[in-house]
Design a protein that fits this description.
Elements: H1 5-16, H2 19-24, E1 28-30, E2 33-37, E3 41-49, E4 57-68, E5 85-88, E6 101-104, H3 108-132, H4 136-146, H5 149-163, H6 166-182, H7 200-212, H8 219-234, H9 244-257
Antiparallel strand pairs: 1-2, 2-3, 3-4, 4-5, 4-6
């Protein structure tokens, strides 16, 4: 079956950006999946085309992941799919937003822009992560320097806790807390009734780890958590667009912050 124009463009971009460094790293390629393994780690990279690609307009994303057998993780299914730690390239950036690389096969300029974006993201975010992921302690060190709140909490819970290193746990928790504190509002669009990121789960997780490690949150950190709770009360929690987990996290945060329990809306 002939390859579509969109698929051809995606593969051409990968040949110019991602593939060469993975070949140097001796990662095995199968389709748009790359993987390798050592004694403890199975690293993977997966390129995922948007299933809604149509009429010459295409987009794709790139996931990087790792599982550590020495920590009891299951091996990835293929590439980064099913890895214990798995993030998109855009998910490794400061805000961790879900960004896809888009282009139109009829517009060479859009293809060049997509290739440039992939090249930059791969060199600055993806490849350093893949290199660091060869060993669990190296991944922790890398994320302590570069990770956003989501990546830091992910590696804290799925790597540092299993390594039983309170120092690594505390440093990863500290990074996650600093990032969450700096980001007081979590809705990207005001009045979005069902935002993808609410912040309640992040702050509930941060509070729980502080309790577990017997550490105290600072006043500005608690104020940032309260701002997220108030924003949720005025938005998602006041409508039907929230989950039972959102309610559980909101109740937990209200108790920890010593404020009145939220009133949940919806039908």
């Amino acid at each position: 079956m002939a390859k579509s124009e969109i698929a051809s463009v995606i593969d051409r971009i990968l040949v110019e950006t991602v593939a060469p460094s993975l070949k140097v790293a001796k990662m095995r390629k199968q389709g748009r999946h790359w993987s390798d393994s050592n004694v403890s780690a199975v690293r993977g990279v997966t390129v995922q085309a948007n299933r809604f690609n149509f009429d010459g307009v295409g987009s794709f994303t790139i996931d990087v992941g790792v599982s550590y057998s020495t920590l009891g993780h299951r091996a990835p299914v293929q590439g980064a799919h099913g890895a214990a730690i798995s993030h998109r390239l855009s998910g490794l950036a400061d805000e961790g937003r879900d960004v896809w690389f888009e282009f139109d096969v009829r517009d060479p300029a859009s293809i060049e822009l997509a290739q440039s974006a992939v090249d930059t993201s791969w060199r600055t975010l993806g490849l350093p992560f893949v290199h660091a992921a060869a060993f669990p302690d190296e991944l922790c060190q890398h994320v302590m320097r570069t990770g956003n709140v989501f990546v830091a909490l992910d590696v804290l819970e799925n790597v540092a806790v299993l390594l039983k290193s309170e120092r690594l746990e505390a440093e990863l928790l500290g990074r996650a807390t600093r990032y969450a504190t700096a980001r007081t509002r979590w809705r990207y669009v005001d009045n979005d009734p069902h935002p993808l990121e609410l912040g309640l789960d992040v702050w509930a997780t941060i509070f729980r780890h502080h309790e577990r490690l017997r550490r105290q949150l600072q006043a500005d950190e608690r104020q940032a958590a309260l701002a997220v709770l108030r924003d949720a009360e005025a938005g998602c929690l006041a409508t039907r667009y929230h989950s039972e987990q959102d309610e559980e996290d909101a109740m937990f945060l209200a108790k920890e912050l010593g404020v009145q329990a939220p009133v949940f809306g919806g039908s």
